[in-house]
Specification:
mainly alpha, globular, DNA binding
Length: about 70
């Protein structure tokens, strides 16, 4: 993905995260980036909040979050 993504993985490795935890976190980061169709470092705070709310409320039939 990006240099930031690589650093994200390296930081988790240095903190002794398990391989399954690293896979889970990187999967979540890739899902976030894919949702907004841009690199994670280009996603702003409001977009992240909207994404979290969308995921939290996704079982209640809410529409896709707005892209700021």
């Amino acid at each position: 993905m990006t240099r930031l993504f690589d650093r994200f993985v390296q930081d988790m490795q240095l903190r002794n995260f398990s391989e399954s935890a690293i896979r889970s976190y990187t999967y979540a980061l890739k899902q976030l980036a894919a949702h907004f169709d841009k690199a994670p470092e280009l996603i702003n705070e409001q977009e992240i909040k909207n994404y979290f709310l969308f995921n939290r409320n996704s079982n209640s039939g809410h529409s896709k979050p707005e892209k700021s």
